[in-house]
């Protein structure tokens, strides 16, 4: 199987139609095969029965091979069309499934892709469309996923630029034939069959419409976007080694650059300057919120961060028909938001609601339900999927909770444990280790550190156990004990047996902190919003200490600090 994984609006549908002119090729419409196989992997990894039955990696590989074979019953060479195939982890997995992996990717400059979307959708506000629309955000995510996949596996990609495809299609199809090991074929570019895509399913008319004759659509991307937006999104064609956008730096990006370099003073000054000059910009307000939190100004910080809901970078889209809770007695639906670690942190607000005389219904991801149900202040736990149908008088999105609860400064935060610690014996000198979070979240915070630094620091200084249950677990050395991590309940029991935990910024950090297990969290120069307040302690967890990276891309400092702490502990 060959993978056709392209940027949106870059000609993949046209290419599939042309490939289907060959009698020895079948190119699919947009396929869910990568999603189906990914779901199978996730279920296999997370199911307690996998471990109980002695499941090995070869088992899931055979399952994936079966799914792949069942999907296409044909002797033709299949080109499966799906954006997911360009992702690092999926490429890695498919190498195990079918050996060689070949990805044909149509590409196009981002500004041109945006203009094509704008031509199709005709938005009233082009700036807002480019910054916030679901389609354009999908484009940016696809770009980053493909860029990361290509960086890791460059030899597995063949890029076909849109302009080259429509201007000299035969040459590009010859390139593809050579890449996948087929003979050349003379295509008919004056009689191209329309795609088999059902655009009604996407809710966008003519999203995949193909003209019967190959030709370039004549329009000006610059005119459609305007000079400012066109210039803003220029560049970034990584397949041609062009630098990332943005060519014209905007105030918010100058501020962000200072932050990423660790110049917090300059970044904070710019954040407040930008907020004064552009008070109605939600992105600028969001960035200023981080600065306020770093000063311990909880109310001001969260109010500014909450503006991120306008740009979908803060909270979840779920909305209740009931009013937002503002101190009233009654039944409150506390909607936990974002990732599993965020949700484990946010469930702390259940005790505030209970103290206010409320019945507390918590909406969470299903994996966390059993752990959350142990919290005395939680009356009911429901899965997110069922939350809309559960009775409640008021609604409280958890990432906005500090505002409604009236927190003003760090002094108002409660760092005492709020998730009951399982009643298990603490094993002397046992240290739980986790060295990375989910790959999907790594880019935003650059929180992933070299696992070797952790292992070299911890070896012979503690009896270590493995808390890495997903991507990265393969790096675990044999002197680190394997334990039960099949569910979050099992993980909680394992954490409770530890004298201390060392982890990156992950859900494990929040669960350990919430249970009162002494925890050391190793964080990057630019920390997650919860860790913005300077120093080694955090007002959110009394038992958590922070080991901070001091320079971008240099992780030595926090591990030297960790080593010193461990030596002192051993000497005591």
Describe this structure in words.
Helix content is 41%, strand content 13%. Helix 19 links the parallel strand 7 and strand 8. The model has no long low-confidence stretch (mean pLDDT 89). The longest helix has 19 residues. The protein contains 25 helices and 15 strands. It has four domains: 212 residues, Rossmann fold, CATH 3.40.50.300; 58 residues, Serine Threonine Protein Phosphatase 5, Tetratricopeptide repeat (Alpha Horseshoe); 77 residues, Rossmann fold (3-Layer(aba) Sandwich); 142 residues, Glycogen Phosphorylase B (Rossmann fold, 3-Layer(aba) Sandwich). The protein has 572 residues and is of the alpha/beta class. The strands form three sheets. Strands 11-10-12-13-15-14 form a six-stranded mixed sheet. Strands 2-3-1-4-5 form a five-stranded parallel sheet. A four-stranded parallel sheet has the order 8-7-6-9, with helices on one face.
Descriptors:
4 domains; 572 residues; alpha/beta; single chain; five-stranded parallel β-sheet; Rossmann fold; six-stranded mixed β-sheet; Serine Threonine Protein Phosphatase 5, Tetratricopeptide repeat; 25 helices
Widest beta sheet: strand line-up: 11-10-12-13-15-14
Secondary structural class: alpha/beta
CATH architecture of the largest domain: 3-Layer(aba) Sandwich
Largest sheet: 6 strands, mixed
Q: How many distinct helices?
A: 25
Tally of structural domains: 4
> Which CATH top level class of the largest domain fits?
Alpha Beta
Strand percentage lies at 5-15%
Percentage of residues in helical conformation: 40-55%
Instruction: Give the overall silhouette.
Output: globular
Question: Using DSSP, what is the number of strands?
Answer: 15
Q: Give the termini separation.
A: 60 Å
Radius of gyration: 26 Å
What average pLDDT do the residues reach? 89
Low-confidence runs: none
């Amino acid at each position: 199987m060959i993978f056709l994984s392209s940027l949106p609006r870059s000609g993949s549908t046209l290419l599939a139609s042309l490939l289907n002119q060959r009698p020895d090729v079948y190119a699919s419409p947009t396929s869910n095969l990568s999603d189906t196989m990914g779901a199978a992997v996730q279920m296999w990894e997370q199911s307690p029965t996998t471990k109980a039955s002695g499941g090995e990696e070869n088992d899931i590989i055979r399952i994936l091979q079966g799914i792949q074979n069942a999907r296409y019953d044909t002797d033709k060479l299949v080109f499966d069309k799906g954006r997911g195939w360009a992702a690092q982890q999926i490429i890695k997995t498919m190498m195990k499934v079918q050996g060689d992996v070949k990805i044909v990717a149509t590409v196009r400059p981002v500004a041109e892709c945006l203009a094509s979307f704008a031509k199709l959708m005709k938005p009233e506000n082009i700036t807002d469309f480019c910054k916030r629309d679901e389609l354009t955000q999908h484009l940016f995510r696809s770009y980053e996923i493909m860029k990361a996949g290509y960086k890791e596996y460059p030899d597995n990609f063949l890029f076909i630029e849109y302009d080259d495809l429509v201007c000299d299609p035969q040459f590009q199809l010859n390139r593809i034939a050579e890449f996948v090991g087929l003979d050349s074929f003379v295509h008919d570019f004056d009689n191209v069959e329309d795609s088999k895509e059902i655009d009604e399913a996407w809710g966008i008319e003519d999203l995949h419409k193909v003209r019967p004759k190959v030709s370039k659509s004549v329009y000006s991307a610059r005119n459609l976007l305007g000079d400012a937006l066109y210039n803003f999104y220029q560049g970034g064609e990584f397949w041609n080694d062009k630098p990332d956008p943005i060519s014209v730096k905007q105030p918010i990006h100058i501020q962000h650059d200072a932050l990423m370099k660790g110049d917090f003073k300059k970044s904070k000054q710019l954040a407040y300057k930008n907020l004064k000059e552009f008070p109605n910009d939600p992105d600028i307000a969001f960035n200023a919120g981080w600065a306020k939190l770093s000063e311990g100004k909880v109310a001001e910080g969260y109010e500014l961060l909450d503006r991120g809901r306008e740009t979908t970078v803060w909270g979840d889209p779920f909305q209740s028909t009931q009013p937002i809770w503002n101190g009233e007695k009654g039944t409150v639906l506390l909607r936990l938001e974002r990732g599993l670690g965020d949700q484990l942190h946010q469930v702390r607000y259940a005790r505030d609601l209970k103290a206010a005389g409320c019945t507390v219904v918590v909406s969470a991801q299903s994996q966390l339900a059993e752990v959350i149900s142990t919290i005395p202040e939680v009356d009911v736990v429901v899965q997110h999927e069922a939350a809309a149908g559960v009775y409640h008088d008021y609604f409280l999105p958890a990432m906005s909770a500090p505002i409604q609860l009236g927190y003003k400064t760090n002094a108002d935060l409660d760092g005492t444990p709020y998730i009951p610690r399982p009643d298990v014996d603490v094993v002397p000198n046992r240290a739980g280790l986790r060295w990375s979070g989910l790959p999907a979240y790594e880019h935003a915070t650059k929180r992933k550190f070299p696992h070797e630094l952790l292992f070299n620091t911890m070896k012979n200084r503690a009896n270590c156990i493995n808390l890495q249950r997903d991507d990265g677990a393969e790096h675990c050395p044999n002197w680190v004990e394997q334990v039960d991590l099949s569910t979050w309940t099992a993980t909680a029991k394992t954490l409770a047996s530890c004298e201390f935990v060392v982890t990156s910024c992950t859900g494990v950090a929040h669960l350990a902190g919430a249970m009162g297990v002494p925890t050391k969290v190793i964080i990057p120069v630019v920390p997650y919003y919860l860790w913005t307040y300077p120093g080694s302690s955090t007002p959110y967890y009394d038992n958590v200490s922070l080991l901070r990276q001091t320079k971008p891309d240099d992780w030595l400092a926090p591990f030297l600090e960790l080593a010193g702490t461990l030596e002192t502990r051993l000497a005591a």
